[in-house]
UniProtKB/TrEMBL annotation:
HAMAP family: OMPdecase_type1_A. This is Orotidine 5'-phosphate decarboxylase. It holds the Pfam family OMPdecase. The gene is pyrF. Substrate binds at residues 12, 34, 62-71, 119, 172-182, 194-195.
Amino acid sequence: MEVKNKIILALDVPSMEKAVELMDKVSPYLDTVKIGYPLVLAEGLESVSRVKEEYDCKVICDFKVADIPATNQKIADVTFQAGADAIIVHGFVGADSATSCLESANQHGKEIFLLTEMSHPGASRFLQPVSMDIASMGVEMGITNYVGPSTRLDRLGKIRQIIGKDSFLISPGVGVQGGNPKDTLEFADALIIGRSIYLAPDPVEILESIIDSIEL
Ligand code: O7E
């Protein structure tokens, strides 16, 4: 996946009205948006197609899918039918569950991202012990898109080693969670950024400054 300016906007705003207000300002700088539960639970899956159509961008649906294979498949199918270009899938539920999402993606000509380790402090207890194994599982399954934390660059580097240089790795946790954009891009192909942009008094100014900082 190509990501303009290596930044994926996490559109975690509570309404379509807020989404439009933000996208009207920042869309010239972006071509990839991540939409998750905050917007979809408030406005429905229609928000995915609306953002895609109005801003001509790719949408990654962040549903962190983590159910049994049969249910995962239904979730993935309806997400792709709504227009999503990709869906984010948890790896800890195992290969069969992730495979059902991969099969759905292949049928729809779409993609999945496998979530390895999360960026928040609590991930250290349950996810960290298995996150490298999740990355290895993804490689065995032939998955080429991954998510890993910008808040622990040593571990992001290990994930990159496991998935190889040709896999596509996106990384949340820069800004408010403490990660540094430029350092993260030593290992990741693109950053996922939410609050630093949508809570900023001037989202365009902050976006321009992040773009400048990663181009230096
Ligand atoms: O901290 P922010 O506001 O820049 O937002 C980060 C976004 O990335 C937010 O939507 C959050 O749900 C998501 N995220 C993490 O912060 N950490 C993770 O480990 C994983 C994700 C995520 O997007 O998961 C799938 C990619």
